[in-house]
Amino acid sequence: MNSKQCALRKQLKPLIDAVWRENIRLKAAGLVTFTWGNVSAMDRATGIVAIKPSGVDYKTLMPDDIVLTDLKGNLVASRLQPSSDLPTHLVMYRAFPDIGAVVHTHSAYATAFAQACRPLPCLGTTHADYFRGVIPVTDRMTQKDIQSNYEARTGDMIVNKIRKLRVNPLECPSIFVANHAPFSWGPTAAKAVENAIVLEEICKMAWLTYALNAKTRPVASCLLEKHYRRKHGAGAYYGQSRCQRGQRAKHG
Hints:
alpha+beta; L-fuculose-1-phosphate Aldolase; 6-stranded antiparallel beta sheet; 10 helices
């Protein structure tokens, strides 16, 4: 790696470290078996995307292994090949400027919904705290989709579904790819992984809920809105303000 490439990696060290840290967190949270998952994040100022390398075991993954590419998928200052899911991530970054990170897993309960091609309605307030409505499922891929640029077409299917539903992608930060597995996203790598963790948990809750009562109905829209808005938007009041957090840290 030449001096210019080393300088770029040094400049993007916070991005690289965050992507490495959140990939490790994904494994620690139990959302990844073997190497079935990846986290990426994007620096909008430089147009550089950082992502886990393909097939590298989480036990040996180090920050220096994190791959950098541009928005066309060209390698930048990297020695390893990126995740095979990179084209899916790139389609999403190009389509939604507010997305700063993307997560893909094959976590058991969320993947079950994807394989069943079943969307997840909001059944309770845990769901409503993070997702403003139904977790959608993409349309099924055609043979032409699969045999063309498969990973990029996966991204297209995600983008098309979000646009068709006319939802804000940051208010609906997860989706089930039909017959495949879930994708989640957020403004940062940490938030995207948090959304993936919550998605798996609410899928598990939904599975148990339907086992107890197969006719369970979604929550009322007013309850959904109340819980979502407690945590999101200008009127959010859940947790501590930045000022209060600073005072707490100052006084121990």
